[in-house]
Amino acid sequence: MAVAKQFLKSKPVAKVTFELPAEAVNGAKTVAVAGEFNNWDVAAQALKKQKDGSYKTTVELPVGGEYQYRYILDGTKWENDWAADKYVASGISGEENSVVVL
């Protein structure tokens, strides 16, 4: 898993690329990322399958914030990012959310 950040000079946003390797997807047919930046909508940000079996998407997020997120596999299984900047309690049954810091 990886989160890549590209900070833009022309405006106060960063292009954040969320990527799940094939082994993390574990045969899932659909992968999405839900978080504070899309109101936790499991259908708002689908990741595209790559030739190597990984999944990837890029979103623009305002710089200067921290954004909680999780991956959703096949619309039902929630997964954290192994390489998140940090983790915070989600408030749901002891689960944690991944956090990207910009």
Describe this structure in words.
The model has no long low-confidence stretch (mean pLDDT 94). This protein has one helix at 22-25; strands spanning 2-7, 13-20, 31-35, 48-49, 55-62, 66-73, 77-79, 86-89, 96-101. The chain is built from 1 helix and 9 strands. The longest helix is centred in the N-terminal third of the chain and has 4 residues, at 22-25. The chain has 102 residues and is mainly beta. The strands form 2 sheets. Strands 3, 6, 7, 8 and 9 form a 5-stranded antiparallel beta sheet that branches. It is globular.
Brief description of this entry?
This protein has one helix at about 20-25; strands at about 1-5, 15-20, 30-35, 50, 55-60, 65-75, 75-80, 85-90, 95-100.
Considering DSSP H and I runs of 4 or more, what fraction of the residues is helical?
under 10%
Counting helices, strands and paired strands, the structural category is: mainly beta
**What is the 3D shape?**
globular
Give the averaged pLDDT, no decimals. Answer: 94
Annotation field: number of helices = 1
What's the β-strand tally? 9
How large is the share of residues in beta strands?
Answer: over 45%
**Alpha carbon gap, first and last residue:** 18 Å
List low-confidence stretches. none
Question: What's the helix-strand series?
Answer: EEHEEEEEEE
Q: How would you sum up the major sheet?
A: 5 strands, antiparallel
Radius of gyration, in Å, reads 13 Å
